[in-house]
Design brief:
Low-confidence stretches of chain B: none
Number of strands of chain A: 0
Mean pLDDT of chain A: 89
Order of helices and strands of chain A: HHHHHHH
Order of helices and strands of chain B: HHHHHHH
Number of helices of chain A: 7
Low-confidence stretches of chain A: none
Largest sheet of chain A: none
Oligomer: heterodimer
Radius of gyration of chain A: 20 Å
Structural class of chain B: mainly alpha
Structural class of chain A: mainly alpha
Chain lengths: ~190, ~180
């Protein structure tokens, strides 16, 4: 980290900039801006903050922006970074929503949206597969791996097929997984 | 837009959900939000709901903005603002509250965080797959939609192509009647 004199306005500007570039995901741009361009974080600090942002509830990139903003300019800095991240894209998605409503009766447009939605769900699936592959690479001995696969399947069935709801899935499976990995199959 | 929408109920629902969405980002709230908005209250059709996520993916910025669009569709500007704040303020306050501790101790490395990470990795993958399935089943694209989604997933997994291109190709496939 360079120095402590990064103000709220600078945070707002940098996070706006990366958000407006972030077609298809802001995280790669977050790295470019925070580590390479402004050098507010080292690569190691970025990785560390990102892994904490993923562990905490809520949108990962928002959590990251709040942590970076707070580090430099306290609570006001956290909200400045978050506002920068969201303000521009907020108006863009609403413009897209207005266009959607205007075109919603054209059959070609409706068909295009159906194809877009299918592709978008494929993108979510790709993220899931990436996480699963990374997990299997790092899961170590046999029993740990079996438990992780069981948790993965249970989470998929619970949320996607049985539709018991996110709160039930998280409240049941997170404690089970945590206890198993903290006490039974601790990382060697 | 809809006059009998109770925004407070939706906002509360989202606030609780966003505090529950750990490990996989905000898309994990999608199955519950779909149930609340489309199945229980009939504010949006299945097709509209799936379209909102696709639109948010096509726009720059965090994909949590799909809830902004849902708010806007059912209650205009007020809905967009209230729903967005409900989705981000509670979790951001939690981050701020924990932040001073994190910044001081450089957390996330100890035994407990390690166990939590071990548990969350498979759960996030499974829940994300569940959310993907939810979108696919409400998009109304049938088996061809499943094929398109699997192709998009394979391309996104195997290449470094910007996801925007895959969204655009999906739109094209839909427009010319392939899906």
């Amino acid at each position: 980290m360079q120095d402590g004199r990064v103000g709220c306005w600078a945070l707002f500007k940098v996070f706006s900039h990366m958000a407006m570039q972030g077609f298809g995901g802001v995280l790669p741009f977050a790295y470019r801006h925070l580590v390479e361009r402004t050098q507010w974080l080292t690569a190691a600090e970025f990785g560390e903050l990102l892994s904490i942002a993923q562990l905490l509830p809520g949108p990962t990139i928002c959590n990251l922006s709040v942590m970076v903003g707070q580090r430099y300019a306290g609570v006001a800095g956290g909200f400045s970074a978050l506002a920068g991240l969201l303000l521009g894209p907020f108006f863009i998605v609403i413009a897209l929503g207005a266009a959607y409503q205007g075109l919603a009766h054209h059959p070609i447009f409706v068909n295009a949206m159906r194809g877009m939605a299918a592709a978008a769900s494929g993108l979510i699936l790709a993220t899931a597969v990436k996480l699963a592959v990374g997990m299997l690479r790092g899961s170590g001995q046999g029993a740990r791996r079996v438990v992780q696969i069981a948790l993965l399947v249970a989470a998929f069935v619970g949320l996607g097929i049985a539709k018991v709801g996110l709160i039930t899935v998280v409240a049941t499976l997170v404690p089970i997984g945590f206890l198993l990995f903290a006490f039974v199959w601790r990382k060697p | 837009m809809n006059d009998d929408v109770k925004l407070g109920g939706l906002a509360w629902h989202l606030a609780v959900l966003s505090l529950t969405a750990i490990g996989g980002g905000v898309v994990l709230v999608a199955p519950d939000v779909h149930h609340y908005v489309s199945v229980q209250n009939h504010w949006l059709t299945d097709e509209q709901f799936a379209a909102m996520y696709a639109l948010a993916q096509a726009a720059p910025g965090p994909n949590l903005l799909f809830v902004t669009l849902i708010g806007w569709m059912i209650k205009g500007w007020l809905g967009a603002v209230v729903v967005t704040l409900a989705a981000i303020v509670p979790s951001s306050c939690l981050v701020l509250a924990l932040g001073s501790v994190i910044n001081r101790h450089g957390g996330g490395k100890g035994r407990w965080a390690g166990a939590l990470r071990d548990a969350l990795a498979p759960l996030a993958a499974g829940m994300l797959a569940g959310a993907a399935w939810t979108f696919l089943s409400v998009a109304g694209a049938g088996w061809r939609g499943i094929v398109l989604a699997l192709a998009a997933a394979a391309a996104a997994y195997a290449t470094k192509l910007n996801p925007l291109w895959l969204i655009a190709l999906g739109a094209l496939a839909g427009a010319i009647g392939l899906v």
